[in-house]
Design a protein that fits this description.
The chain is about 20% helix and about 35% strand. With about 200 residues, the protein is an alpha+beta fold.
Length: about 200
Amino acid sequence: MMHFAQLLRRELNPVIAAIVSAVVLIGTLGVMIQGRAAILQNGAEIILKTSPVDPRDLMRGDYVRLAYEDISVVDGSLFKGDWPEKTGFAPVWLTLETGEDGLAVPTAVTHEKPEPANPKAVYLKSKPVELSGAERSSAKNVSVSLRFGIERYYVPEGEGLEIEAARNAQRTTVAVRVSKDGEAQIARLMIDGEPLYQEPLY
């Protein structure tokens, strides 16, 4: 019987290699698309106030760069619980609660995912950010910039200026769906509370 290592050393038929590569690629894309759709369909919805900027991406058309007024930069006074002893990159968790105006605002920032104590709270995980143990003692005096993977939203070319004008008038909000793992997807971009763009599941 041919040893497994010998099989690996044999040259793979180009046709078979192409088929295997295509299956892996399609499977990976399918998992990504289904994961996004699951968040849009089942994720907890929050509404965030934005301060977008409208640059132009020559390769992909217009997009709106979104900065979120309440979560893109968080105050150190919101940090709760343990802080990493060593400097390094790690995500942080925001506990978000919806106020009387319908907008979600952070009530706490933690290094670890908090235990769900409030059924109305939504827990949003940031992209890794540099956290320093040396800053622990002065954490309440610092602000931390955070990203969540929802800072860019593509729109049909030429339509970004309308959103930019709405931004200047503070009329733009975004509906975001958040999975149980803290991953976020933009569901709707709104002006004056009315959907301007809505993301399809697929």
